[in-house]
Fold this protein.
Amino acid sequence: MAEEHTIAVLEGDGIGPEITAEAVKALRAVESRSGIRFHLRYAPFGGRAYFETGASFPPETQKVCDEADAIIKGPIGLSHEESKKIPTHQQPERGALLPLRKRYNTFANFRPVYLPPELAHFSPLKPEVVGDGINIMMIRELVSGLYFGAKEEGTGENGLRYVKETLEYDEQQIRDILHVGFKEAQNRKKVLHNVHKSNVLISSVLWNTILDEVAVNYPDVTVKNILVDAAATAMVLHPRQFDVMVMENMFGDILTDLAGGLVGSLGLMPSACIGPHKAYYEPSHGSAPDIAGKGIANPYSMIGSLALMLEKSFALTREAGWVWEALRAVFREGYATTDLADPELGYKALTTSEFGDMVARFIAF
Ligand code: NAD
């Protein structure tokens, strides 16, 4: 019997449905070339889900996700003005994204930052800084820290409004993500950059203590410690010194967007969010309301996330390779979406859908 998988598809908001449609085209092309069957179950999620159903992560969507073998998720989120139409606790990140991460304990977020030599010119950095490309695996802890800690707001005795947000980690949460970082480093260049802020935050002091304990299991991996603020500068000035980087939740949120700048567009940033029993796959970027509906979003991040799903959820390495190769082939043929298609570099601009069609053709080839 042919291999079969059920995938929950959460299209999301803004450019989400546009780029998800292109990932589905790629998946259908993989299906026809491999004979593997993928059953897709679409479900509402995010701001649009709230307007349609009254909940950002409705119970029926939770059920679809529970029953799926893996989840593909488009970005969610509304423009600043649109967000105000939804109660704070139901706004897409708080009402849907964080609960999704918590529900499946997707603590390990892999964000590859990859510009192969032939695409190095997409980086806004000087050619001598980028050299023969950028290849970093950023690993972000995704279900703890400041984004998940207890929150409080109110008015103090002095009559001033205040908020209190808590940065919480326990040692097991830190240990789990550090093991992921060390294992990834072992499989690559055996160097792990540990990003922390131990000169100010005691959460980083505990993090580094656990790191020393975990490191004993990986004698072949060299650890390089770097403060998060220094890391931001170093990533711009000398990005090629990094191979695998591991960090807590908020540091990872910010530094991976910086990485999107390094490679020339957030549209080149896929990601995998892995838990013990379930994983979901989404671009690193948001819903880009500024370009939604214009047909110009770069679907690479979404199609790359699909390739990560094939690799990490189903061990379909050969099929994932077809997808990565097809993505590169589009650029090699001189095409790109408008975020990257600089006519001076000889690129012809494609719409979102034309880009997806071309990827699907290269996969099916
Ligand atoms: P954003 O990442 O959506 O966009 C930042 C910039 O990058 C914009 O100029 C946008 O046009 C561009 N961009 C992003 N993806 C692109 C793509 N695929 N192709 C071409 N250009 C692309 O960040 P934002 O504007 O600050 O946030 C918009 C919304 O997304 C907010 O509501 C935010 O909360 C949400 N968000 C969601 C997620 C998620 O779903 N995981 C992550 C980050 C932000």
DSSP finds 13 helices and 14 strands in the chain. Residues 4-106+275-364 form a domain with the Isopropylmalate Dehydrogenase fold (CATH 3.40.718.10). Residues 15, 19, 75-78, 93, 97, 265-267, 282, 285-291, 297-298, 301, 339 surround nicotinamide-adenine-dinucleotide (CB under 6 Å). The mean pLDDT is 96.
